[in-house]
Design a protein that fits this description.
4 strands, 5 helices, single chain, four-stranded mixed β-sheet, 221 residues, 32% helix, alpha+beta
Length: 221
């Protein structure tokens, strides 16, 4: 596995004219969009269920627990992806898994798609979350919800565009974000507590596998 990225420097004569800033979980969503989507493609090529395929290759008990926890809470029925659906309205489910600074997260996404318009509605999410010792369960649940809502917006809507001189996304019309009518019907969490392990954070880990979970649900549909 080889990993590399470039950081564009600030406004200097020798650098890019585009000012950059951090997004939530820098680099994480991009990498796992690629790797976790590819895992589903490999599972599909082998005609295996995506959850089953991951569990065949994961050894750490904490990793296994979050994948199983999310799948069981969702009511995951084993079968290969993608489905062979016809009609204008289709739906799919997808899973993705990641680690961040010791925190383990598995996300199952359920999406509805209107094939005539291309509109994607991310309807339901189940997030299994292991960040070691849980100090404040309600606060943890809300942090996860925030990651999911912001992550859906980044995955389905947000895009900075520019021409050869300027950024052209300058307002909420040219840079739309997820609005209240498109938020999920349900975000469920499975909080796995390890009092013997120091807390490893919840501010960003659930954002990391989210785009891949949505993409895998679209692939399934």
């Amino acid at each position: 596995k080889r990993l590399a990225w470039e950081t564009i420097p600030p406004l200097l004569d020798r650098a890019s004219p585009l000012r950059t800033s951090h997004l939530r979980d820098p680099v994480g969503p991009q990498i796992h969009f690629a790797s976790e989507s590819f895992i589903d493609e490999v599972a599909a090529a082998l005609n295996l269920d995506p959850v089953e395929f991951r569990l065949k290759h994961i050894k750490d008990p904490r990793d296994i627990a979050v994948i199983k926890g999310a799948a069981e809470k969702f009511g995951w029925q084993p079968r290969p992806s993608p489905q062979r659906q016809t009609g204008i309205k289709v739906s799919g489910r997808g899973i993705a898994y990641s680690q961040r600074n010791g925190t383990r997260v598995a996300v199952v996404a359920e999406v509805d798609i209107d094939r005539s318009s291309g509109k994607i509605y991310a309807r339901r999410f189940v997030v299994a979350h292991d960040c070691g010792q849980i100090i404040n369960p309600d606060g943890l649940h809300r942090a996860i919800e925030g990651n999911i809502v912001q992550g859906i917006s980044r995955t389905l809507w947000e895009e900075v565009k520019f021409n050869d001189k300027n950024v052209t996304t300058v307002d909420w019309i040219s840079y739309p974000i997820l609005d209240i009518t498109e938020t999920p019907e349900k975000i469920e969490t499975v909080l796995i507590d390890h009092p013997e392990i120091a807390p490893s954070g919840a501010g960003e880990p659930a954002a990391r596998p989210l785009a891949a979970a949505i993409a895998n649900a679209i692939f399934d549909a």
